Input
Amino acid sequence: MATLGAYGKKHKVTVVGSGNWGSAIAKIVAENTNEHPDLFESEVQMWVYEEETTVPKTSKHYDAASKFSTQPHKLTRLINHFHENVKYLPGIALPANLIANPSLQESVHDSTILVFNLPHQFIGGLCDQMKGHILPYARGVSCIKGVSVDSEDVRLFSESIGEKLGIYCGALSGANIANEVAQEKFSETTIAYDPPPMDSRNPTPKATTPQGPTPSSSQLDLTAINEHKDSKGKTSKVKLIVPPSDIAPIDHTLLKTLFHRPYFHVQVVSDVAGVSLGGALKNIVAIATGFVAGLGWGDNAKAAVMRVGLLEMVKFGKMFFSNNVQTKTFTEESAGVADLITSCSGGRNYRCAKMSVERKVSIEEVEKEELNGQMLQGLSTAKDVYGFLKERGKEGEFPLLVGTYRILQGELRVEDLPDLMEGVKK
Output
């Protein structure tokens, strides 16, 4: 466990991404690095995709007599000047020790902890740009919800990052609406992090005798092991580098110190696959919940869909990640049931599905009209999960997940959902 004040070097933290959720997480991290100078360097770098923007007229910083307000400026300059992301998180004060940086390579230089918070489609390209510019013993936390699914496999975004960069990466997910978190309204989250064996500073006995552990001379040096298991229990392709001993180990205690705030409570678990799957599959369930809401069937119907959806989420995890997924991740953690409730109460997937039924138009049409170019993750996830299950002949095991996709395709009606949930074939 990390012990305050016991190490010669401090962790440097970089947040890769600066949208509304990226800026909200960066705010939390910078608040905590400032409060724990014995563990962390105060300054937090936040990589910003550079663009020109103007200060909104609704902003408290807007001054019609100032060219700084009326003319376009680099977003990084505005963030560092006003200590506010005026475009993506307006009205929220950011700590002065949070520095916006347009250079990805500079922002990650010498950082021991990398926090990823950006759209998943940019992961590959950005990781390619980071290669050769990060510390070989850095560790990561991905705040990117969901998983990558195709007919061949289900891959965690955290593991995709880890393989690209040659590091270990955990995941953060939960019932976290970015603006509410930024406004310091109380919420919870779950961090999943399974520390690799070489990160442990505590030797493990090789064997025991009837009298107890063998002498210390025969203890196993975990730092000599550069292999670790992936989310499916297989030996990872990544050969990790052991962090230096003069810096605090990145474990559950340290991560809680870095992310926990009075308004943002953190639980740290080891189930990276369960936390990641919860963030993906809940979007399909949210679409189904929106469908029945659009029919005006009421709260009882929505609760029924959520119940079946939660069961299928657990079943999916246990079936395809049997070595690691724990049921309690879905039933007890913010990344499971709490995120499901939030998504099925007012999230984008729920709202667009509801409007599509009410307006009697496709959900894709609602998506175009309502989301200003943003995409519904539930649509692509439903398609990918269906293809994955069909390839394995498991469609009948997941009637709600599969039925939702078939409704989206126009093969079935929303009114068929009750029968589908009972396993009636259509």
